[in-house]
Amino acid sequence: MVSKEAMVNRVDMVNKEAMVNRQAYPQNGEYYGNSYNQAPPPPQQSYEPSNTQYPPPPPQDYGNNGGDFKGAKHYNREPKFRDLWAALLFLAQFALFVVIAALFIKSLPSTAFKNSGKTHNTKDFFSLPTMIMWLCVLLVSIVFSIVYLGLMQMFAGKMLVISFWFAVVSMIGTGIYYLAAKIWFAGGIMLIFGIFYALMWFSWRHRIPFSKLVLEVVCHITRRFPSTIAISVGFLLIQALYSAFWSLAFAGSFKHMQQYQSCSTHTDRNGRQYQSCSNVRQILAWVFMVFSFYWTSSVILNVLHTTICGTFATFYFFEGSPQGYPTKNPTLSSLKRAMTNSFGSICFGSLVVAIIQTVRAVVRAIRSQGDDNVVLQLLACCADCILGCIEAIVEFFNKYAYVEIAMYGKAFVPAAKDTWTLIKDRGVDALINDCLIGNVLQMGAFLCAAVVALVAWLYITITKPEYNTTGSYTAPIIIAAFVLAMSMFMVLLKSIDSGAATTFVCLAEDPEAMARNNPQLFAMVRETYPQVVRGVHAVERF
Fold first, then answer.
1. What percent of the chain has pLDDT over 90?
2. How many Å apart are CA 2 and CA 47, to the nearest integer?
């Protein structure tokens, strides 16, 4: 028979060991810098009653049900600004961009954005009718995205199946088009990929129930916090305004930088003279503007991503707890943390991606200028491919690193390291690979882009602006509308993508919380991916 004193000493020993093992960062929903930080007491084993009556052991608690707050003050941490240097560097480059952009925009024609009275009576692309067209593009994109989100919530399983076969039809259709246009190599490749993708249905169809359940859970939380959609619309407007401002500055740079162009006359071996012009300052200005666009756009999107991740993590750890949510508006609290304490970490991660994207842009420019040099084309093509792979890998880990940043307020480098450990050691990569939500989002983005491109074509066809009498602007406008609509769709439905990423990370961090919040999804994960639900903060029990 174990004495009462021996039992108490043993419990105290486990409590001390657990406290020592949890020193690095707050865990299990302990949001840094707020009065509601909490830390779970170590789980205790319940004992069978015996003839001798002992006091009951402490209740088993994983920090998510608000059972015991005795350890909360010990784990509380004051808010700290992470990676402050990256935030200051970002603000410095953005201020420099604003100054340069102001100079470039002044060089635009004086007739820009002046309406002569009728929508078709204008000779300048920079006019009020053009602005109305882009406003229509924006509104149609927002409406389509919201409608598509509603369809995802109502028909999650059917949307997964439709999106899979939509991708198959798209690839095969594109291949047939290329073959009809006598582009044999590209057509053959697309047809082969389309056929193989269709055959993958037999091995992928078992993923649909899991993906459907994840999508339903994410959509449920989105309905629970409609502010995630509202804040996505807000960031979409910010991104649209910034893109418009950047486009105007880039257009004005052509005329403004002409003053720095230098030309010289040369004579070839046949005695013929030719003129060669160069403008190093213009090239440097363009490289900086491209870099600034990539970095700023990435920061905007990642602030939104981190905000939504914080909202989903709040739901994950505090939904159903006796004390309720730690803040009245989890989305605004997450936005505050993303814009202050974690802003430097977001800028740091975005900087890495922006550098890679800028180098790829330079490589593509070299490819376009070296048509006659086969060796240069081959080297540039290989470099572009390698950089594309690196960019995809970095963006993949960044997405999940921002979840760690949103949950625990970590600096970027520790968050990235922990993300690598989490994905490889906890088996989260299996969940990510088996989730088909990305297919649904890609299909929606393509459909949204196609509808908006059609709207843009109808607008310029009906209004018949004078600057497009020859039709030279039709193709660029349709392509621009297509790309813009696709990017806006992905911003508006960022809540789905960010929510799925947060669900995977939180599941690996604390499976017990999902067992309480969503036992159906937990049961499926435990049966299919048992390595994920072992828990990363397990304490040896006795």
1. 13
2. 11
3-state SS, residue 182: coil
| Residue among 252, 286, 245 nearest 106 (CA) | 252
> Token pair for residue 411?
């600096």
**SS3 (DSSP) at 278:** strand
DSSP tag of 276: E
324-334 pLDDT, tens digit per residue, is 777 788 899 89
Residue 388 exposed, middle or buried by CB count within 10 Å (0-12, 13-18, 19+)? middle
- The beta-carbon contacts of 460-463 under 8 Å, at least 24 apart in sequence, are 460/133, 463/119, 463/120, 463/129, 463/133
325: phi then psi, degrees, rounded to nearest 5: -70, 145
Length of the chain: 542
Whether residue 6 has pLDDT greater than 60: no
d(CA 39, CA 50): 32
Q: Rounded to an integer, what distance in angstroms lies between the CA atom of residue 224 and that of residue 495?
A: 12
Is residue 134 scored above 90 in pLDDT?
Answer: no
Residue at 150: amino acid letter: G
Q: What are phi and psi of 537, to 5 degrees?
A: -120, 35
Degrees (nearest 5) of the Cα angle 524, 529, 531? 135
Segment holding 186, helix H or strand E: helix 184-199
Asked if residue 515 lies in contact with residue 238, where contact means CB atoms within 8 angstroms, the answer is no
Q: What is the DSSP letter of 259?
A: G
The whole-angstrom separation of Cα 495 and Cα 315 is: 14
Q: Could you tell me how far CA 528 lies from the centroid of its own chain?
A: 27
Contact partners, residue 79, CB within 8 Å, separation at least 6: 32, 33, 34, 340, 341, 409
Q: 3-state DSSP call for residue 25?
A: coil
Report residue 461 as tokens: 């066809």
Tokens of 494: 């960022």
Which residues in 109-121 are b (16+ Cβ under 10 Å) and which e?
eeeeeeeeeebee
Helix 412-425 and helix 494-509: axis angle, to 10°? Answer: 70
DSSP class of 323: T
**Sequence-ordered list of residues with C-beta below 8 angstroms from that of 138, at least 6 positions apart, any chain:** 240, 488
Q: 330-339 vs 227-256: helix axis angle to the nearest 10?
A: 30
pLDDT score at 402 = 93
Other Cβ atoms less than 10 A from the Cβ of 381: the count is 13
CA distance 87 to 462: 47
pTM flag (> 0.70)? yes
- Contact of 408 with 30, CB cutoff 8 Å: yes
233 burial class (0-12, 13-18, 19+ CB within 10 angstroms)? Answer: middle
Asked if 467 and 473 count as a contact pair (C-beta separation under 8 A), the reply is yes
Q: Cβ(457)–Cβ(474) under 8 Å? A: yes
